[in-house]
């Protein structure tokens, strides 16, 4: 685990998976790819390790649906990068989690995250153990990202 001081000062040097729930209680994972992370997430960074471990331990419960524009998002990338991206996003969506990532890596000035995949059967916040719910509650924000293929998180970066 990255120490909190390094993360706070050099968040743009790390690829951090961080989690939110949307208004409907759907769990969403964002891969930072060296980009901006909301201050609220940085404040409760220690919670991410537990949330991440729990979700990684879940069985595959859903079919993954990929963003139909995935190859356009990664237009300048090799097929190998696209396949690796699909593999990572499928890992999360198979567990019932919506997955966003950045196409511009290590760019803290860019706040755009792209929907890469979503589960056919998403897991609900309320289906998670109470301990995980409490941890996710600490980083809950109201943002209607489930309807967008691209999300500019600059509106919540400073929360």
Protein model, in words:
The structure is a single chain. It is globular and about 40 Å long. It contains six helices and six strands; from the N terminus they run αββααβααββαβ. Strands 1, 2, 3, 4, 5 and 6 form a six-stranded mixed beta sheet that branches. Strand 1 (17-21) and strand 2 form a beta hairpin. It has helices spanning 4-10, 39-43, 45-57, 70-73, 79-94, 130-138, and strands at residues 17-21, 27-31, 64-66, 98-101, 112-119, 150-152. The chain has one domain (4-155). The model is unreliable at 154-159 (pLDDT under 50). Helix content is 34%, strand content 18%. It is an alpha+beta fold and 159 residues long.
Percent of residues in β-strands: 15-25%
Sketch the major β-sheet.
6 strands, mixed
The count of domains is 1
Unreliable segments of 5+ consecutive residues: 154-159
Structure annotation, total helices: 6
- Termini distance? 23 Å
| Overall 3D form | globular
Radius of gyration: 15 Å
Average pLDDT number = 77
Helical residue percent?
25-40%
Which structural class is indicated by helix and strand composition? alpha+beta
Number of beta-strand segments: 6
- Order of helical and strand elements: HEEHHEHHEEHE
């Amino acid at each position: 685990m990255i120490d909190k001081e390094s993360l706070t000062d050099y968040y743009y040097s790390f690829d951090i998976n961080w989690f939110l729930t949307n208004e409907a209680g759907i769990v969403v994972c964002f891969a930072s790819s060296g980009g901006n992370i909301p201050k609220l997430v940085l404040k409760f960074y220690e919670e991410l390790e537990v949330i991440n471990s729990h979700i990684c331990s879940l069985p595959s419960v859903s079919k993954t649906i990929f963003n139909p524009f995935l190859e356009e998002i990664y237009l300048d990338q090799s097929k190998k990068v696209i396949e690796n991206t699909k593999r990572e996003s499928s890992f999360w969506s198979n567990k019932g989690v919506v997955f966003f990532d950045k196409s511009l890596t290590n760019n803290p000035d860019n706040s755009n995250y792209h929907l890469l995949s979503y589960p056919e059967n998403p897991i609900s916040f309320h289906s998670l153990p109470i301990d995980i719910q409490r941890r996710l509650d600490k980083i809950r924000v109201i943002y209607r990202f489930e309807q967008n293929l691209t999300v500019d998180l600059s509106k919540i970066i400073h929360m």
